[in-house]
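Protein modeling request. Please complete all fields; requests missing the sequence field cannot be processed.
Requester role: graduate student
Desired output: 3D structure, token encoding
Chains: 1
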Amino acid sequence: MTKITLNRRWVLAGGLWLAAGPRLAHAAAPVVETAAGRLKGASSNGVLSFKGVPYGEPTGGTGRFMPPRPRQPWAGVREALDYGASAPQTLVEGVGAPRDPAAPAPYPSLIRSDIEPPPQSEDSLSLNVWTPSTTGKRPVMFWLHGGGFSTGSGSSAWYDGANLARKQDVVVVTINHRLNVFGFADLSAFGDRYASSASVGMADCVLALQWVKDNIERFGGDPDRVMIHGESGGGRKVSVLMAYQPAKGLFHRAVVQSGSQLRVDGPELAAEKGRRLLAELQIAPADVDRLAEVPFEDLRRAGMRASSGLGQWRPTVDGRLLPRHPFDPNAPDLTADIPMMIGTNRTEMSIYLAVNPAMDSLSTAGLKAMIGRLTSADRAQEVLDLYQRLYPASTNAERLYMAATDRSYFLDSTLQAERKAAQDGAGAYYYAFYRETPVQDGRFFSPHAQEIPFVFDNLDKAEVMVGPVTPQAQALADQMSGAWAAFARTGAPAAPSLPAWPLYDASRPALVFDEGECRIENDIRSEQRQLMATFGSQQDVQSELPTPGEPRSDAPV
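Delivered output (557 residues):
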């Protein structure tokens, strides 16, 4: 049987540290008065930028696992020229199994950079703003980075908002917030003061949205037209915010890119992670307040060990702030009036799997075995037969990537869309991204995260993923960035040369984004969806305590 090893270090687009280059020139440096004080930004090529803007107080020491506090006012003019510190990340050297040195070297990931990440700190609650002007009232595109709930930052070069701001006349905001054990450890069993600890990372996002509501008009933005959007873990955070009580009224449209979070941690699973955390640190429950004294490096290492085998740290259904699972069994009434866009890429899972050279010679027997692990051993032949019939010209590797994607990202996205569509409310638009990247001889097809540079119109910053910037690729970026901006502006996605995009309904229409031909398809990948639906969402299992011996991935997906 072929063994697949996933590279979990910075494998997600949002977890990639693609820090932007040097400071912009100070030409006509803009100064904006915010509720907390004055900020000096930078001006370049018709766009004003303000980076590293603090929206919350430091979260270390006694602030750990506590709700965030707004940043206290400062005197004078504060420079906002460089990105702020990154939140502490889960993945730490020396934690987790190393790669077998005898195995063939993996192919380079499409999500990588040689640039050092910004420094990590518990003083990381900051945001970044790009705007064409500090006057006017433009729609606001509020981006939540990927990396699961474990890693990432708003300072990736792929997320640079300058092109969107300049070409689409919008205001772009990206943020940093608490992650992993720092943002999602359920310690509520150990004292009332920790009642909100299981979702303080989401509370950070709410505080940043509140900052937008209070301040964005001073940056030329419209606080009544705020669109939250994100990819992978960012899409998962968007999904959670749709059901998160404190976020009500702070945003008006929502986009989920390859991150449909139907369920989060149930109380029993979250409580077990919390118990394991104290045990790892040898802290008695009565002494839980000692967590404030633990060096953050030790805390994040203990957090990774505590969650091992239980899945990553995630928000928890607490019956209060998050009273229910985000989209299970249905869409939340809390945000019935919020229109959504939801979608996935055709071979999401190739980003993890195609780095393995063994995929070049994957046998049919090996493919069947892996399909059995994705679905069930008893029905592996049934699934294999479907993909062989539908894709007779494909390699076994491509069939695996499609089956693994349909089982996870694609199925969950269609469940989320149909539940939103069934609600008496604003409805949802569904998309499918089919553009194949030419890099590395096309081995990745249409991988996870490839759509991000098209949405941000940053192809030149992501050639490692998208390949050379061709006129055809740029035309697709124009269409996608235009559609996302139109959705932020009006609540309906549209762009020049795109077909009319209907709401998701019983016919399941999807807008397929591809070079040269963007088109509407009804009930896209219908047979695959129907077959995978018979297995149920993987999240049905992931949200509960595993049974003894049950494998559970810790990757930040």
